[in-house]
């Protein structure tokens, strides 16, 4: 089989890239190791920057997002019982974010791809990428016991942190930057109304918490927990009791609890791979970088990568190499700014067991400055809604 672009991975990055290329008349196939149900079963981010909203609109899949998503003009910080609102809309000249679950976004993209009759191979085993350092890359995989090979012009590695694409790059050609955090997030999804109209980030002596939502009737809550703990140790009752302890009295009293639809513990890490282009192979999304979810940047960074990569590939077929030549440089400038913000929010809002007394006081002073200064609040707001593209 021959195609212009082979996309590895049918998560949001791969599906969005495929849809944008399709709208521009560039042929692409998506190869995914998992089943559609598995892909849709991943419970992930739900806060979209304007760049992600704009890309979904450009891809022609934004209608349900606008109908069902929740525009948010701000969020609140609850610091040791005192609440402070960050006015995103007022501090950024009218910008906001959209709360729309990654599962729903993925479903919209999958439906659009299926309705257009575009090729997607699910449950592909033994996926491998070859000859991406030449002008004739190839992708091999097995499906239903039969071997297949795709000849293509480019390979887009959108297959996540543990995917085959980054792992196939020679170690001498790539550099990894990483920080692993000494705690995780215990997340619970429930069919209950959110405790707050906007996201609520909580800094407490017992640890971080986040009150989020997926809709007016579905809530997503997180608690900082030890990596040594397991989901089985956390009954629904224990989760709700601990969340109440970390909230102020008024918010805790209004919390509506219910049975968990899903419960999981996610470790936190910061990670960046450099560069992101290796001949005819490009990395995008979680294959290229991971951010702790405190800054709500993971899905948005993937959308940023896809914006650059889709335009680079479209321009290539129109006769320009500039986009593919500068892909890595352009992405990494934006990636490191988002990494910095996510790292900073994580450091400021969590309890670190190894932090000494001086560093703890300095972090508390930094957070106090940020939330009580217009300049500090503006810095948070500008980063949260998404920094502007410079090219």
Question: Would you kindly provide a written description of the structure presented here, covering whatever features stand out?
Answer:
- The protein is an alpha+beta fold and 391 residues long.
- The chain has a domain at 2-72 and 98-178 and 269-350: FAD/NAD(P)-binding domain (3-Layer(bba) Sandwich), CATH 3.50.50.
- The protein is 38% helix and 28% strand.
- The chain is built from 13 helices and 19 strands.
- Strands 1, 2, 8, 9, 10, 11, 17 and 18 form an 8-stranded mixed sheet that branches. The chain has an 8-stranded mixed sheet with strand order 6-5-13-14-15-12-16-19.
- Helix 1 (12-23) links the parallel strand 1 and strand 2.
- Helix 1 packs parallel to helix 6, helix 1 packs parallel to helix 10 (298-317) and helix 10 packs antiparallel against helix 11 (322-349).
- The mean pLDDT is 96.
CATH architecture term of the domain at 2-72 and 98-178 and 269-350: 3-Layer(bba) Sandwich
Q: What is the radius of gyration computed over CA atoms, rounded to a whole number of angstroms?
A: 21 Å
User: What is the CATH topology of the domain at 2-72 and 98-178 and 269-350?
Assistant: FAD/NAD(P)-binding domain
- Please give the share of residues in helix: 25-40%
Beta-strand level of the residues, as a percent range?
A: 25-35%
Structural class: alpha+beta
Quick check: average pLDDT?
Answer: 96
Unreliable spans are none
Distance between the termini: 35 Å
> What is the CATH superfamily label of the domain at 2-72 and 98-178 and 269-350?
FAD/NAD(P)-binding domain
Subunit arrangement of the protein = single chain
| Number of E-state strands | 19
Give a short account of the largest sheet: 8 strands, mixed
Q: Shape from CA axes?
A: globular
Indicate the CATH class of the domain at 2-72 and 98-178 and 269-350: Alpha Beta
Number of helices: 13
